[in-house]
Specification:
This protein is 81% helix and 0% strand. The protein is an all-alpha fold and 133 residues long. The chain has a single domain, classed as Four Helix Bundle (Hemerythrin (Met), subunit A) (Up-down Bundle). The longest helix is centred in the first third of the chain and has 41 residues. The model has no long low-confidence stretch (mean pLDDT 94). Bound molecules: heme C.
Amino acid sequence: MMKVWTKLALMCVLSSVAMANTTTLVQTMRDMENGLSNVQKGFLYNNPVLIKEGVDAIHAANTLFNNMDETKKFLPKEKQHLSNVALNASKRINTASTNLLKAVEKKQFSKASQSYSELVNACTACHGVVRGW
Ligand code: HEC
């Protein structure tokens, strides 16, 4: 049987790993939010450079969910069986934002704005899993 101190030390390590995960997640979601705001502002102010910056920020933040195991880590325990849905949402974010940018580069802003909606829906799909919406 493990000694009490060993158990306590293990608990400290595990909880600090959990806290590090939380910090990473919160920072990543801030980056996502900031990127999304810039994309939206880019549309509103007719500023393609801002759209591009926003998409780049979202792409970078989205690398947090590279694969199933990585994605699982950031979901609450009771939602981890839905990590495939979460991972799928993350993939949709990459696809939608890449399509968005391609359309902007061709000056097809109406098409780009449809990809923007798809992008927001993909954020909501993962939040729906996490929050039980
Ligand atoms: C793979 C899952 C996943 C995807 C995709 C995702 N999020 Fe999140 N998001 C989370 C989790 C987990 C939390 C933390 C739990 C909560 O807030 O319910 C969170 C929380 C947030 C928060 C609140 C952070 C806080 O400090 O309270 C914001 C803002 C946010 N996400 C923005 C976004 C945006 C914008 C996108 C899309 C570009 C996005 N998220 C895509 C999983 C995801």
